[in-house]
């Protein structure tokens, strides 16, 4: 028997991607998947891509998850904390929701509302020293999808003093799976296809998380809904602190030992299709010849490195496994 794992909230897009990754993981033994309205249904009836996975959704109750070694929580924001608190202390938990990401209770209240559940270890292994912290943790808060795309592009530059932290601008386009699986009129195919639309302009909930993870002090963030199922392309710009520093070289040095972060060869730019199905992030940087601003473009699969893949990467570290176990660094094409 391997390491027994379960997924709570497994009927959504991130939950389905978790099931796919865990079903093929060489060390994790997927034993339970819970859902709310889909309880009692075969997993493959909800996720047809998982035909052959002999598993039935059970109700999302603590007792259903009490006998596993590690639980992934893929629940809506605000619902993870109560379930996690009801699990036995010996069960390790990776939360894909936002409940435990923020250290600042006031920021939680401002962007999410309700009581702040407290901060867990932040689940981004590529931050300096964070692999060891995650490996020693029993409770880990996985990153938000926009947050990981932006943080990987920005954090090394702020830490190195290459860019100023007080004038960061981010415009990021995401596929529709980032909005969840619930039926909504504005996410219908006929509404999305052939269209780009901004949303939550000036008040997106990932802003405090990005600031917390990168050291940015002022951040303007504009998310854009793109007519594709999955993927994020983030364009991050900031004023240079030191003129003449090569931002690409700073990023390449920072991620030299990170198997999932690829700083592309000079002149090659990230695009979302290249990261599809992978746990990788592709980066490229340049300095704008007119404004002098540093520009970094970041591409990820929002359900991979932005959600399920990142969670499995953290779970690998928490379980004493190589962080790459069961995860692909290569995308699927065409």
From TrEMBL:
Q: What keywords tag this UniProt record? A: Amino-acid biosynthesis, Arginine biosynthesis, Cytoplasm, NADP, Oxidoreductase
Q: Which residues form the active site?
A: 145
Q: What is its EC number?
A: 1.2.1.38
The protein's matches in Pfam families, at most eight in alphabetical order, are given as: Semialdhyde_dh, Semialdhyde_dhC_1
Please name the top-level EC class of this enzyme.
Answer: oxidoreductase
Query: What chemistry does it catalyse, as a reaction equation?
Result: N-acetyl-L-glutamate 5-semialdehyde + phosphate + NADP(+) = N-acetyl-L-glutamyl 5-phosphate + NADPH + H(+)
Q: In which pathway does it act?
A: Amino-acid biosynthesis; L-arginine biosynthesis; N(2)-acetyl-L-ornithine from L-glutamate: step 3/4
> Which superkingdom heads the taxonomic lineage of this protein's source?
Bacteria
Intracellular or extracellular location(s)? Cytoplasm
Q: Does the keyword Cytoplasm apply?
A: yes
Q: Matching SUPFAM superfamilies, A to Z? A: Glyceraldehyde-3-phosphate dehydrogenase-like, C-terminal domain, NAD(P)-binding Rossmann-fold domains
Function description: Catalyzes the NADPH-dependent reduction of N-acetyl-5-glutamyl phosphate to yield N-acetyl-L-glutamate 5-semialdehyde.
Concerning its family, UniProt says:
Belongs to the NAGSA dehydrogenase family. Type 1 subfamily.
Q: What's the protein called, per UniProt? A: N-acetyl-gamma-glutamyl-phosphate reductase
Question: Lineage of the native species?
Answer: Bacteria, Bacillati, Actinomycetota, Actinomycetes, Micromonosporales
Gene (name only): argC
């Amino acid at each position: 028997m391997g390491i027994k794992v379960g997924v709570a909230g497994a009927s959504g897009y991130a939950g389905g991607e978790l099931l796919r990754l865990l079903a093929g993981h060489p060390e994790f033994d997927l034993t339970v998947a819970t859902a709310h309205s889909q309880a009692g249904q075969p997993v493959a009836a909800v996720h047809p891509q998982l035909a052959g996975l002999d598993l039935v959704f059970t109700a999302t109750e603590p007792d259903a998850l009490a006998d596993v070694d590690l639980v992934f929580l893929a629940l809506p924001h605000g619902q993870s904390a109560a379930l996690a608190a009801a699990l036995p202390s010996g069960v390790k938990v990776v939360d894909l929701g936002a409940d435990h990401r923020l250290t600042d209770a006031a920021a939680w209240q401002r962007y999410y509302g309700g009581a702040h559940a407290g901060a867990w270890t932040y689940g981004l292994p590529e931050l300096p020293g964070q692999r060891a912290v995650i490996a020693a943790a029993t409770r880990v808060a996985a990153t938000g999808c926009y947050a990981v795309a932006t943080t990987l592009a920005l954090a090394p530059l702020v830490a190195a003093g290459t860019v100023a932290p007080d004038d960061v601008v981010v415009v990021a386009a995401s596929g529709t799976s980032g909005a969840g699986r619930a039926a909504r009129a504005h996410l219908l195919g006929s509404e999305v296809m052939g269209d780009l639309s901004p949303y939550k302009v000036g008040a997106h909930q990932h802003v405090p998380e990005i600031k917390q993870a990168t050291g940015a002090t002022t951040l303007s963030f504009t998310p854009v809904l793109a007519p594709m199922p999955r993927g994020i392309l983030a364009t991050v710009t900031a004023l240079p602190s030191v003129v003449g520093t090569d931002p690409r070289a700073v990023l390449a040095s920072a991620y030299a030992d990170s198997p999932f972060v690829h700083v592309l060869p000079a002149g090659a730019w990230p695009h979302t299709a290249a990261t599809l199905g992978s746990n990788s992030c592709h980066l490229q940087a340049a300095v704008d010849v007119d404004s002098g601003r540093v520009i970094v473009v970041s591409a990820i699969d929002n359900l991979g490195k932005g959600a399920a893949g990142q969670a499995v990467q953290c779970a690998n570290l928490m379980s004493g496994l190589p962080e790459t176990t069961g995860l692909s660094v290569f995308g699927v094409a065409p």
